[in-house]
Design a protein that fits this description.
The chain is α/β, with parallel strands linked by helices and 585 residues long. Strand 3 and strand 4 form a beta hairpin. Helix 9 runs antiparallel to helix 11 and helix 13 runs parallel beside helix 15. The longest helix has 22 residues. This is ATP-binding protein.
Length: 585
Protein backbone atom coordinates (compact mmCIF):
# COMPACT_ATOMS: atom_id res chain seq x y z
CA UNK A 1 0.00 0.00 0.00
CA UNK A 2 2.78 2.41 0.81
CA UNK A 3 4.55 1.70 -2.46
CA UNK A 4 1.39 2.32 -4.48
CA UNK A 5 0.75 5.53 -2.58
CA UNK A 6 4.25 6.76 -3.27
CA UNK A 7 3.85 6.01 -6.95
CA UNK A 8 0.55 7.84 -7.15
CA UNK A 9 2.07 10.82 -5.32
CA UNK A 10 4.81 11.08 -7.94
CA UNK A 11 2.18 11.19 -10.69
CA UNK A 12 0.32 13.97 -8.87
CA UNK A 13 3.48 16.00 -8.35
CA UNK A 14 4.27 15.68 -12.03
CA UNK A 15 0.76 16.80 -12.95
CA UNK A 16 -0.31 19.11 -10.13
CA UNK A 17 -3.44 20.27 -11.97
CA UNK A 18 -5.07 16.86 -11.47
CA UNK A 19 -6.58 16.36 -8.01
CA UNK A 20 -6.37 12.72 -6.91
CA UNK A 21 -9.13 11.10 -4.84
CA UNK A 22 -7.56 9.75 -1.64
CA UNK A 23 -10.48 8.82 0.59
CA UNK A 24 -13.79 9.84 2.13
CA UNK A 25 -14.94 11.93 5.07
CA UNK A 26 -15.31 9.64 8.10
CA UNK A 27 -18.68 9.15 9.77
CA UNK A 28 -17.29 7.69 12.97
CA UNK A 29 -15.63 10.98 13.87
CA UNK A 30 -17.61 14.19 14.12
CA UNK A 31 -16.98 16.57 11.20
CA UNK A 32 -17.21 20.33 11.73
CA UNK A 33 -16.67 23.44 9.62
CA UNK A 34 -13.22 23.70 11.27
CA UNK A 35 -11.91 20.13 11.10
CA UNK A 36 -12.80 16.66 9.89
CA UNK A 37 -11.29 13.18 9.49
CA UNK A 38 -10.58 11.29 6.30
CA UNK A 39 -10.55 7.54 5.86
CA UNK A 40 -7.98 6.62 3.20
CA UNK A 41 -8.76 4.29 0.35
CA UNK A 42 -6.57 1.19 0.01
CA UNK A 43 -3.31 2.07 -1.72
CA UNK A 44 -3.62 5.79 -0.95
CA UNK A 45 -1.39 7.76 1.37
CA UNK A 46 -1.66 11.14 3.04
CA UNK A 47 1.17 12.70 4.98
CA UNK A 48 1.40 15.70 7.26
CA UNK A 49 1.05 19.06 5.49
CA UNK A 50 -0.80 17.64 2.47
CA UNK A 51 -3.52 19.97 1.20
CA UNK A 52 -6.88 18.30 0.56
CA UNK A 53 -10.32 19.46 -0.57
CA UNK A 54 -13.87 18.16 -0.46
CA UNK A 55 -17.12 19.64 -1.73
CA UNK A 56 -20.70 19.74 -0.57
CA UNK A 57 -23.83 20.93 -2.31
CA UNK A 58 -25.67 23.26 0.06
CA UNK A 59 -29.28 24.15 -0.81
CA UNK A 60 -29.58 27.81 -1.71
CA UNK A 61 -25.80 28.23 -2.09
CA UNK A 62 -24.66 25.58 -4.51
CA UNK A 63 -21.29 23.78 -4.30
CA UNK A 64 -19.20 24.73 -1.26
CA UNK A 65 -15.50 23.88 -1.23
CA UNK A 66 -13.96 22.91 2.09
CA UNK A 67 -10.15 22.89 1.98
CA UNK A 68 -7.62 22.13 4.66
CA UNK A 69 -4.21 20.85 5.68
CA UNK A 70 -3.48 17.41 7.10
CA UNK A 71 -2.35 17.79 10.72
CA UNK A 72 -2.52 14.19 12.02
CA UNK A 73 -2.17 10.78 10.35
CA UNK A 74 -2.96 7.51 12.14
CA UNK A 75 -2.98 3.81 11.24
CA UNK A 76 -4.56 1.03 13.26
CA UNK A 77 -5.95 -2.49 13.12
CA UNK A 78 -9.74 -2.43 12.94
CA UNK A 79 -11.07 -5.51 14.68
CA UNK A 80 -8.28 -5.98 17.21
CA UNK A 81 -9.29 -6.03 20.87
CA UNK A 82 -5.95 -6.64 22.60
CA UNK A 83 -2.41 -5.46 22.01
CA UNK A 84 -1.29 -9.03 21.46
CA UNK A 85 -3.79 -9.41 18.61
CA UNK A 86 -1.26 -7.76 16.31
CA UNK A 87 0.72 -11.02 16.19
CA UNK A 88 -2.32 -13.13 15.37
CA UNK A 89 -3.39 -10.70 12.68
CA UNK A 90 0.10 -10.68 11.16
CA UNK A 91 0.05 -14.50 11.05
CA UNK A 92 -3.41 -14.53 9.44
CA UNK A 93 -5.02 -16.27 12.42
CA UNK A 94 -7.29 -13.33 13.26
CA UNK A 95 -9.22 -11.34 10.65
CA UNK A 96 -8.69 -7.57 10.81
CA UNK A 97 -8.26 -4.67 8.45
CA UNK A 98 -5.54 -2.02 8.42
CA UNK A 99 -7.17 1.39 8.45
CA UNK A 100 -5.42 4.71 7.87
CA UNK A 101 -7.12 7.97 8.81
CA UNK A 102 -6.03 11.60 8.70
CA UNK A 103 -7.24 14.67 10.55
CA UNK A 104 -7.68 17.78 8.42
CA UNK A 105 -7.70 21.29 9.81
CA UNK A 106 -9.86 23.51 7.63
CA UNK A 107 -8.08 26.55 6.20
CA UNK A 108 -10.72 27.93 3.84
CA UNK A 109 -14.39 27.54 3.00
CA UNK A 110 -15.42 29.01 -0.35
CA UNK A 111 -17.97 30.52 -0.49
CA UNK A 112 -18.10 31.21 3.24
CA UNK A 113 -20.96 28.91 4.15
CA UNK A 114 -19.71 27.28 7.31
CA UNK A 115 -21.23 23.83 7.15
CA UNK A 116 -19.46 20.54 7.92
CA UNK A 117 -18.50 18.21 5.08
CA UNK A 118 -20.86 15.25 4.88
CA UNK A 119 -19.63 11.79 5.92
CA UNK A 120 -18.86 9.69 2.88
CA UNK A 121 -17.95 12.69 0.71
CA UNK A 122 -14.94 12.15 -1.50
CA UNK A 123 -11.72 13.88 -0.47
CA UNK A 124 -9.10 14.88 -3.04
CA UNK A 125 -5.49 15.97 -2.96
CA UNK A 126 -5.65 19.62 -3.93
CA UNK A 127 -4.70 20.37 -7.52
CA UNK A 128 -2.89 23.56 -8.46
CA UNK A 129 -5.96 25.82 -8.42
CA UNK A 130 -7.52 24.33 -5.28
CA UNK A 131 -4.16 24.38 -3.49
CA UNK A 132 -3.69 28.08 -4.18
CA UNK A 133 -7.22 28.71 -2.96
CA UNK A 134 -6.80 26.58 0.19
CA UNK A 135 -3.62 28.45 1.18
CA UNK A 136 -4.88 31.90 0.09
CA UNK A 137 -2.18 32.20 -2.56
CA UNK A 138 -4.88 33.25 -5.04
CA UNK A 139 -5.51 36.51 -3.12
CA UNK A 140 -1.85 37.38 -2.61
CA UNK A 141 -1.22 40.09 -5.21
CA UNK A 142 2.40 40.39 -4.05
CA UNK A 143 3.74 37.07 -2.88
CA UNK A 144 7.25 36.03 -1.92
CA UNK A 145 8.52 32.44 -2.36
CA UNK A 146 9.34 30.91 1.02
CA UNK A 147 10.45 27.51 -0.22
CA UNK A 148 8.86 24.22 -1.18
CA UNK A 149 6.13 22.29 0.59
CA UNK A 150 6.02 18.57 1.26
CA UNK A 151 4.37 18.15 -2.15
CA UNK A 152 7.34 19.79 -3.89
CA UNK A 153 5.30 22.85 -4.88
CA UNK A 154 6.13 26.48 -3.92
CA UNK A 155 4.86 28.09 -0.74
CA UNK A 156 4.53 31.85 -0.38
CA UNK A 157 4.20 34.67 2.12
CA UNK A 158 2.17 37.79 1.45
CA UNK A 159 4.54 40.75 1.03
CA UNK A 160 1.81 43.03 2.43
CA UNK A 161 2.72 41.58 5.83
CA UNK A 162 6.42 42.32 5.34
CA UNK A 163 6.62 45.81 3.87
CA UNK A 164 4.32 47.53 6.36
CA UNK A 165 1.19 47.67 4.17
CA UNK A 166 -0.76 45.40 6.53
CA UNK A 167 1.98 44.31 8.90
CA UNK A 168 5.74 44.02 9.25
CA UNK A 169 8.66 42.29 10.94
CA UNK A 170 9.70 38.63 11.14
CA UNK A 171 10.53 36.62 14.27
CA UNK A 172 12.62 33.45 13.78
CA UNK A 173 13.21 31.01 16.66
CA UNK A 174 15.15 27.79 16.97
CA UNK A 175 18.07 25.88 18.44
CA UNK A 176 21.43 27.38 17.57
CA UNK A 177 23.35 25.51 14.87
CA UNK A 178 20.39 23.30 13.94
CA UNK A 179 17.47 25.60 13.16
CA UNK A 180 19.31 27.40 10.28
CA UNK A 181 17.76 30.72 11.36
CA UNK A 182 20.36 32.92 9.65
CA UNK A 183 20.23 30.86 6.45
CA UNK A 184 16.46 31.26 6.28
CA UNK A 185 16.71 35.00 6.97
CA UNK A 186 19.18 35.48 4.11
CA UNK A 187 17.04 33.33 1.78
CA UNK A 188 14.01 35.47 2.67
CA UNK A 189 15.99 38.61 1.78
CA UNK A 190 17.15 37.02 -1.46
CA UNK A 191 13.57 36.10 -2.33
CA UNK A 192 12.37 39.64 -1.64
CA UNK A 193 15.08 41.17 -3.82
CA UNK A 194 14.64 38.73 -6.72
CA UNK A 195 10.92 37.88 -6.81
CA UNK A 196 9.88 41.10 -8.57
CA UNK A 197 7.58 42.43 -5.84
CA UNK A 198 9.73 45.52 -5.26
CA UNK A 199 9.27 46.74 -8.85
CA UNK A 200 10.87 50.17 -9.27
CA UNK A 201 12.02 50.21 -5.63
CA UNK A 202 14.25 47.17 -6.10
CA UNK A 203 17.47 49.13 -6.63
CA UNK A 204 16.87 51.42 -3.63
CA UNK A 205 15.67 48.82 -1.11
CA UNK A 206 18.46 47.97 1.34
CA UNK A 207 19.34 45.28 3.85
CA UNK A 208 21.54 45.65 6.92
CA UNK A 209 22.87 42.39 8.37
CA UNK A 210 24.73 42.11 11.67
CA UNK A 211 27.04 39.08 11.46
CA UNK A 212 28.21 37.44 14.68
CA UNK A 213 29.11 33.93 13.43
CA UNK A 214 32.61 34.01 12.03
CA UNK A 215 33.08 35.10 8.43
CA UNK A 216 30.28 32.91 7.08
CA UNK A 217 28.13 35.84 5.92
CA UNK A 218 30.91 37.75 4.21
CA UNK A 219 30.55 35.94 0.89
CA UNK A 220 26.90 36.48 -0.04
CA UNK A 221 28.00 37.86 -3.41
CA UNK A 222 30.03 34.73 -4.29
CA UNK A 223 28.66 31.64 -6.03
CA UNK A 224 28.37 28.56 -3.86
CA UNK A 225 30.63 25.82 -5.19
CA UNK A 226 28.41 23.16 -3.59
CA UNK A 227 25.25 24.17 -5.45
CA UNK A 228 24.02 21.13 -7.41
CA UNK A 229 21.40 20.56 -10.11
CA UNK A 230 18.78 19.52 -7.58
CA UNK A 231 19.09 22.86 -5.80
CA UNK A 232 19.03 24.74 -9.12
CA UNK A 233 15.82 22.94 -10.01
CA UNK A 234 14.31 24.06 -6.68
CA UNK A 235 15.15 27.69 -7.45
CA UNK A 236 13.61 27.30 -10.91
CA UNK A 237 10.42 25.91 -9.40
CA UNK A 238 10.29 28.92 -7.06
CA UNK A 239 10.78 31.30 -9.98
CA UNK A 240 14.09 32.59 -8.60
CA UNK A 241 17.52 32.74 -10.24
CA UNK A 242 20.13 30.45 -8.67
CA UNK A 243 22.81 33.06 -8.14
CA UNK A 244 24.43 35.02 -5.30
CA UNK A 245 23.44 38.47 -4.07
CA UNK A 246 24.41 41.05 -6.64
CA UNK A 247 25.51 43.97 -4.44
CA UNK A 248 27.26 43.42 -1.10
CA UNK A 249 29.53 45.61 1.03
CA UNK A 250 31.19 44.42 4.22
CA UNK A 251 32.09 46.59 7.21
CA UNK A 252 34.54 45.22 9.76
CA UNK A 253 36.26 46.70 12.82
CA UNK A 254 39.94 47.65 12.60
CA UNK A 255 42.55 45.19 13.72
CA UNK A 256 43.54 45.77 17.35
CA UNK A 257 46.72 47.80 17.58
CA UNK A 258 46.82 48.53 13.84
CA UNK A 259 47.84 52.18 13.32
CA UNK A 260 46.28 52.28 9.83
CA UNK A 261 42.83 50.94 10.72
CA UNK A 262 42.95 47.91 8.41
CA UNK A 263 39.70 45.84 8.54
CA UNK A 264 40.01 42.82 10.78
CA UNK A 265 38.99 40.10 8.28
CA UNK A 266 41.13 37.30 6.93
CA UNK A 267 39.20 35.55 4.17
CA UNK A 268 37.92 38.55 2.18
CA UNK A 269 39.94 41.44 0.77
CA UNK A 270 37.63 43.22 -1.69
CA UNK A 271 34.53 45.23 -0.85
CA UNK A 272 35.52 45.56 2.81
CA UNK A 273 35.72 48.81 4.76
CA UNK A 274 36.76 49.46 8.34
CA UNK A 275 34.24 51.06 10.67
CA UNK A 276 34.92 52.98 13.86
CA UNK A 277 33.89 56.15 15.65
CA UNK A 278 36.24 59.02 16.37
CA UNK A 279 36.43 60.53 19.82
CA UNK A 280 34.88 63.67 18.32
CA UNK A 281 31.81 61.66 17.24
CA UNK A 282 31.75 59.79 20.53
CA UNK A 283 31.45 63.06 22.43
CA UNK A 284 29.27 65.04 20.02
CA UNK A 285 26.72 62.24 19.52
CA UNK A 286 26.63 61.28 23.22
CA UNK A 287 27.57 57.67 22.51
CA UNK A 288 28.62 57.07 26.11
CA UNK A 289 25.15 55.68 26.89
CA UNK A 290 25.80 52.77 24.50
CA UNK A 291 28.88 51.82 26.50
CA UNK A 292 26.38 51.01 29.26
CA UNK A 293 24.00 48.99 27.09
CA UNK A 294 23.50 45.96 29.34
CA UNK A 295 20.31 45.50 31.30
CA UNK A 296 22.53 45.24 34.39
CA UNK A 297 23.67 48.81 33.80
CA UNK A 298 20.10 50.11 34.10
CA UNK A 299 19.62 48.27 37.39
CA UNK A 300 22.93 49.56 38.74
CA UNK A 301 21.51 53.04 39.40
CA UNK A 302 24.04 55.11 37.51
CA UNK A 303 21.99 55.71 34.32
CA UNK A 304 21.43 59.34 35.37
CA UNK A 305 25.17 59.78 35.87
CA UNK A 306 25.82 58.37 32.37
CA UNK A 307 23.54 61.00 30.88
CA UNK A 308 25.18 63.81 32.86
CA UNK A 309 28.72 62.82 31.85
CA UNK A 310 27.70 62.38 28.20
CA UNK A 311 26.20 65.89 28.19
CA UNK A 312 29.40 67.36 29.64
CA UNK A 313 31.53 65.63 27.01
CA UNK A 314 29.31 67.01 24.28
CA UNK A 315 29.61 70.53 25.65
CA UNK A 316 33.31 70.57 26.57
CA UNK A 317 35.07 68.33 24.01
CA UNK A 318 36.84 70.21 21.20
CA UNK A 319 38.30 68.59 18.05
CA UNK A 320 42.09 68.47 17.77
CA UNK A 321 43.84 67.75 14.46
CA UNK A 322 42.37 65.67 11.66
CA UNK A 323 42.43 62.23 13.31
CA UNK A 324 39.35 62.60 15.51
CA UNK A 325 41.16 63.41 18.79
CA UNK A 326 39.60 65.77 21.34
CA UNK A 327 40.63 68.27 23.97
CA UNK A 328 38.59 68.24 27.20
CA UNK A 329 39.29 70.96 29.77
CA UNK A 330 42.84 71.38 28.57
CA UNK A 331 43.64 67.65 28.39
CA UNK A 332 44.18 66.01 25.03
CA UNK A 333 42.72 62.54 24.34
CA UNK A 334 43.86 60.49 21.33
CA UNK A 335 42.58 57.10 22.42
CA UNK A 336 39.55 55.76 24.23
CA UNK A 337 41.86 54.82 27.09
CA UNK A 338 42.94 58.47 27.37
CA UNK A 339 39.29 59.53 27.66
CA UNK A 340 38.57 56.92 30.32
CA UNK A 341 41.57 58.04 32.37
CA UNK A 342 40.46 61.66 32.08
CA UNK A 343 36.98 60.82 33.35
CA UNK A 344 38.46 58.76 36.19
CA UNK A 345 40.61 61.67 37.36
CA UNK A 346 37.79 64.21 37.08
CA UNK A 347 35.19 62.08 38.86
CA UNK A 348 37.48 60.94 41.64
CA UNK A 349 38.56 64.50 42.43
CA UNK A 350 36.15 66.14 44.88
CA UNK A 351 36.79 69.56 43.38
CA UNK A 352 35.78 68.65 39.83
CA UNK A 353 33.27 65.87 40.47
CA UNK A 354 30.32 68.21 40.94
CA UNK A 355 31.01 69.91 37.61
CA UNK A 356 30.64 66.57 35.83
CA UNK A 357 27.75 65.07 37.79
CA UNK A 358 25.67 68.26 38.07
CA UNK A 359 24.44 67.24 41.52
CA UNK A 360 25.61 65.50 44.63
CA UNK A 361 26.20 61.89 43.63
CA UNK A 362 27.08 59.12 46.09
CA UNK A 363 30.71 58.05 45.80
CA UNK A 364 29.60 54.42 45.53
CA UNK A 365 27.60 55.24 42.39
CA UNK A 366 30.57 57.07 40.89
CA UNK A 367 32.90 54.18 41.61
CA UNK A 368 30.48 51.67 40.11
CA UNK A 369 30.25 53.84 37.00
CA UNK A 370 34.03 54.03 36.72
CA UNK A 371 34.51 50.29 37.22
CA UNK A 372 32.09 49.59 34.42
CA UNK A 373 33.72 52.24 32.21
CA UNK A 374 37.22 50.83 32.77
CA UNK A 375 36.00 47.34 31.90
CA UNK A 376 34.89 48.73 28.52
CA UNK A 377 38.33 50.18 27.75
CA UNK A 378 39.81 47.10 26.09
CA UNK A 379 36.68 46.01 24.11
CA UNK A 380 35.98 49.50 22.72
CA UNK A 381 39.51 50.75 22.06
CA UNK A 382 39.65 49.31 18.49
CA UNK A 383 36.38 51.03 17.43
CA UNK A 384 36.54 54.35 19.32
CA UNK A 385 39.59 56.10 17.90
CA UNK A 386 41.36 59.42 17.80
CA UNK A 387 44.78 58.14 16.82
CA UNK A 388 44.43 57.27 13.14
CA UNK A 389 46.49 59.35 10.69
CA UNK A 390 43.60 61.17 9.01
CA UNK A 391 39.89 61.70 9.42
CA UNK A 392 38.60 59.41 6.66
CA UNK A 393 35.31 57.75 5.77
CA UNK A 394 34.70 55.18 8.49
CA UNK A 395 30.94 55.05 9.05
CA UNK A 396 28.63 52.10 8.51
CA UNK A 397 26.38 53.07 5.62
CA UNK A 398 23.65 51.29 3.69
CA UNK A 399 24.05 53.54 0.65
CA UNK A 400 27.05 51.73 -0.83
CA UNK A 401 25.31 48.45 -1.70
CA UNK A 402 21.99 46.66 -1.60
CA UNK A 403 23.21 44.43 1.25
CA UNK A 404 25.48 45.87 3.94
CA UNK A 405 27.06 43.41 6.37
CA UNK A 406 28.44 44.56 9.71
CA UNK A 407 30.93 41.94 10.87
CA UNK A 408 30.97 41.67 14.66
CA UNK A 409 32.48 38.26 15.27
CA UNK A 410 35.95 39.62 16.17
CA UNK A 411 34.55 41.99 18.78
CA UNK A 412 33.83 41.16 22.43
CA UNK A 413 30.18 41.11 23.45
CA UNK A 414 30.45 44.54 25.07
CA UNK A 415 31.67 46.06 21.82
CA UNK A 416 29.04 44.16 19.80
CA UNK A 417 26.31 45.79 21.86
CA UNK A 418 27.85 49.20 21.30
CA UNK A 419 28.03 48.75 17.54
CA UNK A 420 24.48 47.38 17.20
CA UNK A 421 23.03 50.18 19.29
CA UNK A 422 24.86 53.04 17.58
CA UNK A 423 24.31 51.75 14.03
CA UNK A 424 20.61 51.04 14.60
CA UNK A 425 20.09 54.46 16.13
CA UNK A 426 21.78 56.13 13.16
CA UNK A 427 19.77 54.23 10.54
CA UNK A 428 16.50 54.74 12.40
CA UNK A 429 17.10 58.48 12.70
CA UNK A 430 18.01 58.60 9.00
CA UNK A 431 14.70 57.00 8.09
CA UNK A 432 12.85 59.36 10.44
CA UNK A 433 14.41 62.42 8.81
CA UNK A 434 13.58 61.08 5.32
CA UNK A 435 9.88 61.28 6.18
CA UNK A 436 8.85 58.41 3.90
CA UNK A 437 8.64 54.63 4.27
CA UNK A 438 10.06 53.93 0.81
CA UNK A 439 12.63 52.70 0.07
CA UNK A 440 12.52 49.93 2.67
CA UNK A 441 15.36 48.96 4.99
CA UNK A 442 15.48 45.35 6.22
CA UNK A 443 17.52 44.79 9.38
CA UNK A 444 18.67 41.23 10.16
CA UNK A 445 19.72 40.80 13.79
CA UNK A 446 20.58 37.47 15.37
CA UNK A 447 20.61 36.78 19.13
CA UNK A 448 17.70 39.15 19.65
CA UNK A 449 17.24 37.85 23.20
CA UNK A 450 20.65 39.38 24.02
CA UNK A 451 19.81 42.84 22.71
CA UNK A 452 16.15 43.02 23.74
CA UNK A 453 15.75 40.75 26.79
CA UNK A 454 12.36 40.37 28.41
CA UNK A 455 13.55 41.81 31.72
CA UNK A 456 15.27 45.15 32.26
CA UNK A 457 15.89 48.15 30.03
CA UNK A 458 18.78 49.33 27.90
CA UNK A 459 19.39 51.87 25.11
CA UNK A 460 19.45 49.09 22.48
CA UNK A 461 16.18 47.63 23.74
CA UNK A 462 14.57 51.06 23.48
CA UNK A 463 15.64 51.36 19.84
CA UNK A 464 14.46 47.84 18.97
CA UNK A 465 11.10 48.53 20.60
CA UNK A 466 10.88 51.71 18.55
CA UNK A 467 11.63 49.73 15.40
CA UNK A 468 9.03 47.08 16.29
CA UNK A 469 6.32 49.63 17.08
CA UNK A 470 7.04 52.48 14.65
CA UNK A 471 9.33 50.88 12.08
CA UNK A 472 6.41 49.75 9.95
CA UNK A 473 5.43 53.35 9.21
CA UNK A 474 9.05 54.37 8.60
CA UNK A 475 9.94 51.46 6.32
CA UNK A 476 12.35 49.79 8.79
CA UNK A 477 11.59 46.06 8.85
CA UNK A 478 13.17 43.89 11.54
CA UNK A 479 14.05 40.26 10.82
CA UNK A 480 15.01 39.09 14.28
CA UNK A 481 16.35 35.66 15.20
CA UNK A 482 16.73 34.10 18.62
CA UNK A 483 17.13 30.71 20.23
CA UNK A 484 14.33 31.34 22.71
CA UNK A 485 11.40 33.63 21.93
CA UNK A 486 10.36 33.32 25.58
CA UNK A 487 13.36 35.45 26.57
CA UNK A 488 12.69 38.28 24.09
CA UNK A 489 10.69 41.41 24.92
CA UNK A 490 7.02 40.51 24.35
CA UNK A 491 6.16 43.66 22.41
CA UNK A 492 8.83 42.90 19.81
CA UNK A 493 7.59 39.35 19.22
CA UNK A 494 3.92 40.36 19.25
CA UNK A 495 4.54 43.06 16.63
CA UNK A 496 5.99 40.50 14.21
CA UNK A 497 3.43 39.69 11.53
CA UNK A 498 5.37 36.64 10.32
CA UNK A 499 6.60 34.07 12.83
CA UNK A 500 9.01 31.27 12.00
CA UNK A 501 10.25 28.30 14.00
CA UNK A 502 12.95 25.81 13.10
CA UNK A 503 14.18 23.03 15.35
CA UNK A 504 12.99 23.80 18.90
CA UNK A 505 14.14 22.60 22.29
CA UNK A 506 11.29 20.54 23.81
CA UNK A 507 11.11 22.69 26.95
CA UNK A 508 11.09 25.87 24.88
CA UNK A 509 8.40 24.52 22.55
CA UNK A 510 6.07 24.11 25.53
CA UNK A 511 6.17 27.85 26.32
CA UNK A 512 3.14 30.04 25.65
CA UNK A 513 5.12 32.13 23.15
CA UNK A 514 4.64 29.27 20.66
CA UNK A 515 0.87 29.21 20.99
CA UNK A 516 0.68 29.94 17.27
CA UNK A 517 1.97 26.42 16.67
CA UNK A 518 -0.67 23.65 16.96
CA UNK A 519 0.24 20.88 19.40
CA UNK A 520 1.18 18.42 16.65
CA UNK A 521 3.41 20.99 14.94
CA UNK A 522 5.14 21.78 18.24
CA UNK A 523 6.07 18.13 18.58
CA UNK A 524 7.33 18.05 15.00
CA UNK A 525 9.43 21.14 15.60
CA UNK A 526 11.47 19.26 18.21
CA UNK A 527 12.67 16.79 15.54
CA UNK A 528 12.75 19.10 12.50
CA UNK A 529 15.76 18.73 10.23
CA UNK A 530 17.95 21.70 9.25
CA UNK A 531 16.33 23.53 6.36
CA UNK A 532 12.75 22.89 7.52
CA UNK A 533 10.90 25.86 8.97
CA UNK A 534 7.34 26.33 10.20
CA UNK A 535 6.00 29.68 9.03
CA UNK A 536 2.86 31.40 10.32
CA UNK A 537 1.36 34.42 8.61
CA UNK A 538 -1.92 36.24 9.38
CA UNK A 539 -3.83 35.15 6.27
CA UNK A 540 -3.31 31.39 6.62
CA UNK A 541 -4.90 29.69 9.69
CA UNK A 542 -2.20 27.00 10.00
CA UNK A 543 1.61 27.23 9.93
CA UNK A 544 3.22 26.00 6.73
CA UNK A 545 6.07 23.51 6.81
CA UNK A 546 8.64 24.97 4.42
CA UNK A 547 11.85 23.50 3.05
CA UNK A 548 13.97 26.30 1.62
CA UNK A 549 16.59 25.45 -1.01
CA UNK A 550 20.32 25.17 -0.49
CA UNK A 551 21.89 28.65 -0.66
CA UNK A 552 23.11 29.71 -4.09
CA UNK A 553 25.59 32.02 -2.34
CA UNK A 554 28.57 30.96 -0.28
CA UNK A 555 27.78 30.44 3.40
CA UNK A 556 31.41 29.98 4.44
CA UNK A 557 34.80 30.86 2.92
CA UNK A 558 35.42 27.29 1.71
CA UNK A 559 32.28 27.42 -0.46
CA UNK A 560 33.08 30.73 -2.14
CA UNK A 561 33.87 30.84 -5.83
CA UNK A 562 35.70 33.82 -7.33
CA UNK A 563 33.30 36.66 -8.26
CA UNK A 564 32.10 36.63 -11.84
CA UNK A 565 34.41 38.48 -14.20
CA UNK A 566 37.32 38.38 -11.79
CA UNK A 567 40.21 35.97 -12.11
CA UNK A 568 42.19 35.43 -8.95
CA UNK A 569 45.90 35.81 -9.62
CA UNK A 570 48.43 33.24 -8.53
CA UNK A 571 50.21 34.76 -5.51
CA UNK A 572 53.32 32.70 -6.36
CA UNK A 573 53.48 33.84 -9.99
CA UNK A 574 57.01 34.87 -10.93
CA UNK A 575 58.69 32.87 -8.18
CA UNK A 576 61.10 30.04 -9.13
CA UNK A 577 59.52 26.69 -9.81
CA UNK A 578 60.40 23.48 -8.03
CA UNK A 579 62.90 22.52 -10.68
CA UNK A 580 64.53 25.94 -10.68
CA UNK A 581 64.95 26.27 -6.95
CA UNK A 582 65.82 22.94 -5.39
CA UNK A 583 66.14 23.24 -1.61
CA UNK A 584 69.59 22.28 -0.22
CA UNK A 585 68.25 19.51 2.02
Amino acid sequence: MTVNGAASREVTAANPAAGEAVGRVLGTQAASPLSFWVGLEPGKVLQLDDVVVTRRDVPGYGPVLVAGVVTTVEARHEGAAYDSDVFLIADGALPAAVVEVAEVRVTRVEPEVFVPPLPGSKVFLAGAGDRDLALYFDVMDRRIPLGLGRDGQPLYVNFDFLDGTRGAHVSISGVSGVATKTSFATFLLYSIFNSGVLDAESANTKALIFSVKGEDLLFLDHDNLRLDEKARAAYARLGLPAQPFGSVHVFAPPRPGDVNGVPNVSARTQGVSAFYWTLVEFCEEELLRFVFADADDERAGYSLLVGQVAARLKAWAEPVGDGGAVMVQGTGCRTFADLVELLSEQLQDEGSRLQWTGAQTPLGTVNAFLRRLRSAMKPLSPIVRGDLPFYRNHSVSTSDAQVSIVDLHNLPERAQRFVVGVVLRGEFHRKESAGTAKPLLFVVLDELNKYAPREGDSPIKEILLDVAERGRSLGVILIGAQQTASEVERRIVSNSAVRVAGRLDPAEAARSEYGWLPAAVRERATIAKPGTMFVAQPEIPVPLAVAFPFPAWATRPSEAAAPAGKVSEDPFKGLPGIEEDIPPF
